Amino acid sequence: MVDQTGIMTMAETGSWVWTTLATAAGGTMLDGFKQFVNEWSVPQISLPLFFMPIFVLSIVLYRKWTKPIWFWPGLIVFTIVYFGFIFLDPSYAAILKKPDNVPISMMIYGTVFCLWMALRQAAKNDHSLETGQPLVEEGREDKVLCWPDLVYEELIAMVLCTALLIVWSVFLKAPLEAPANPAGPPNPSKAPWYFLGLQELLVYFDPWMAGVVLPGLIIVGLGALPFIDVNPKGNGYYTYKERKFAIWTFMFGFVILWVVLIVFGTFLRGPNWNFFGPFQPWDPHRVDKLTNINLSEIVYVQTLHRPMPESRLVREAPGLLFAAFWLFALPPLLAQIWPLFKRLRYQMGFARYYLMSFLFVVMMLVPVKMAARWLFNLKYIIAIPEINFNL
Amino acid sequence: MFQVISTYIRESQLWNSFFRHGPPRDRRTRVMVVMSNLFLHLHPVAVRRSGIRLSFTWCMGGLTFFLFIAETISGVLLMFYYRPVVEYAYSDIVQMRSALTLGIMREIHRWGAHAMIISIWLHMMRVFLTGSYKPPREFNWVVGVLLLVLTLLMSFTGYLLPWDQLAIWAITVGSKMAEATPFMGMNGPGRELLQLPGGIPLVTANSDAKFLLLAGASVGAPALLRFYVLHCIAIPLAVSVLIAVHFWRIRKDGGISGPM
Fold first, then answer.
1. Exposure string (b/e) for A34-50, b if CB count within 10 Å is 16 or more?
2. Domain total in chain B
3. What is the DSSP track for A276-320?
4. What are phi and psi of A275, to 5 degrees?
5. Who among B90, B142, B155 is closest to A194 (CB)?
């Protein structure tokens, strides 16, 4: 008996020691992990080193990861991690459980799932195109009657959508904050979530660019898309191989510059539009030092070691030259030196090519300005605050 | 007995004035049901089998349209309980919360609006990735882009109506952009260029693009009324017309896209 009790006590003690150690180690590991994520989630690290590689690999390796054997386990692991941290961290739970943030989770899942479906069929079709087999969408003459095939499909979709909407509405109340007070802005003040990608751009651009010119050009560019994409292939079926440039450009704009920036803007931008990691409590008193400098200062003061020129035109000459080069010299230059653009220039003709390449370089100005901010603390390329012209 | 009643009903004038043919059980009546019904005849009688696969269309365009209808119905119900006046707007919403037992119309309206934005984005992504904007569907893509912009504006104008802190400051942040419109915003680049002889500026806080949007220099009572009218009447009407064009052009351009 005594021996037995002793053994049991020892076993108990052992398991207690083990549990305590494991919890402590696990807790430390968890804290270490959270700290790591918080520090590495800032845009200057996570955009080039996390989101961009994932985006690039998801398109380059589209034939591999879209296989159900890779996709479904991956989605399950992602879901466990994505929702699991609700139980492990209060700040993260506060972000994810906020009723107005639910659409962001839906947007993330919708985009990932639809991208998977599209690239999966593109992989199948590209394989068929290589081996001369029929496409997934083949069978032009294979018709079915609208009733019942299509009508029932629509009915089921409507019923499911209604059910989802009702369940969502029963469990989550629409938010209502304190009555409007024109004298007391909340901190942070955020635009509706679907515009937060643009509000995120306000970190890098002035409102006339982030709020007017860039969204305007997005609309113009989307509208012009069918007229500047002259590639006759890939009409009416999923493919990647036959229209690589179109897919890279559009998906970069949609996934990275729109969806990811919305996620940053809603989930990770706190008081004073400061950036907070997903496991960081929003501290309204945190002050982030702003040490950004203009291109003119980098050129004249830091490089040439001279005082700033008096004349506005001379002072901003480097920025104006850069902007002129970027907008007007780069499109013809690309047609000379980049084989892809050389081919496009030949295929598209003058007007189409210059419209497309202008839209392209303006879009690329966004990541370029972001990179310049992260690398050189660049504030403005051109800064003429006297006439509100800052780029 | 059942047979007798059923036959009696089916041969009555009332029944026959509603239904011009028998139930859709064979090919002939299935064709007729689509052709003799205003709503069903938006569809072609026959569709390509691979075109209506869920994995091809994701049903996102259809869901966007369905959510637009759900928004219209729940929105009309909300209009019964809401006055777009600063004195009442917020308290009407509070009333709606407390007085209406089991009321979820506001929830349906708000979450449905969010869902509609996601579904319209995914619809655009699907149309892009299947190359369905290519000839002969270029025009319909442009109509779709306009519908996308109007949907965002519809949601944006609706965001102000609860008149709480979230609403007024989200619209303040959003409309600050209009202030910076080049040439036409009071803080935009190049606004000095627009002035009358004698140095009288044309673009001021009371005449710039933001003023046009808000009917004032900041978000106040006139903005609430303006957003209400835009949200409930003007934009939905424009959207309805464009949806009709969009659907009509799908048919005229050859139905759901497929390999040429």
1. beebbeebebeebbeee
2. 1
3. --TTS---TT-------B-HHHIIIIIIS--PPPSSHHHHTHHHH
4. -90, 130
5. B155
Q: Which of A143, A207, A236 sits opposite B130 (nearest CB)?
A: A236
Residue B183 sits at the chain A interface (C-beta within 8 Å): no
Q: Is A154 on the interface with B (CB under 8 A)?
A: yes
CB contact under 8 A, A243 and B104: no
Using the Cβ of B177 and the Cβ atoms of chain A, whether some distance falls under 8 Å is answered with yes
Residue A16 has pLDDT above 80, yes or no: no
State whether B259 and A206 contact (CB < 8 Å): no
Question: Does residue A156 sit at the B interface (CB-CB below 8 Å)?
Answer: no
Residue A391 CA to its chain's centroid (Å): 22
Residues on chain A touching B194 (C-beta within 8 angstroms): none
What is the CATH number for B80?
A: 1.20.810.10
Quick count: other Cβ atoms within 10 Å of Cβ A384?
A: 18
The mean per-residue pLDDT over the stretch B35-52 comes to: 87
Dist CA A280 CA A37 (whole Å):
10
Give the model's pLDDT for residue A1.
41
Are the Cβ atoms of A157 and B188 closer than 8 angstroms? no
**pLDDT tens-digit series, residues A281-329:** 998 888 887 788 899 889 898 888 888 888 888 999 999 999 999 999 9
Q: Mean pLDDT across chain B, nearest whole number?
A: 91
Is residue B203 domain-resident?
yes
Give the pLDDT band of residue A2 (cuts 50, 70, 90): very low
- On chain B, the residues whose CB falls within 8 A of the CB of A193 are 114
Domain ranges across chain A: 42-131+145-173+188-288, 289-391
Give the residue from B148, B139, B143, B135 showing the smallest Cα distance to B60.
B148
Rounded Cα–Cα distance for residues A383 and A380 (Å): 6
Inform me whether the C-beta atom of residue B221 falls under 8 Å from chain A C-beta atoms: no
Does the interface predicted TM-score (ipTM) exceed 0.90? yes
- Pairing mode, strands B195-196 and B200-201: antiparallel
SS3 A384: strand
**To 10 degrees, what angle do helices B60-79 and B105-129 make?**
160
In this predicted model, what pLDDT tens digit does every residue of A51-68 receive, in sequence order? 999 999 999 999 999 999
pLDDT given at position A221: 96
Percentage of chain A beyond pLDDT 70 is 93
Q: Cα distance from A65 to chain B (closest Cα, Å)?
A: 17
The 10s digit of each residue's pLDDT in A241-263 is 999 999 999 999 999 999 999 99
> Would B38 be classed as within a structural domain?
no
Contact A207 B180 (CB under 8 A): yes
Residues 6+ apart with CB under 8 A from A164: none
Range of the domain at B239: 59-252
Sign of CA dihedral A58, A256, A185, A291: positive
Tell if the CB–CB gap between B47 and A142 is shorter than 8 Å.
no
Residue B2 resides in a domain: no
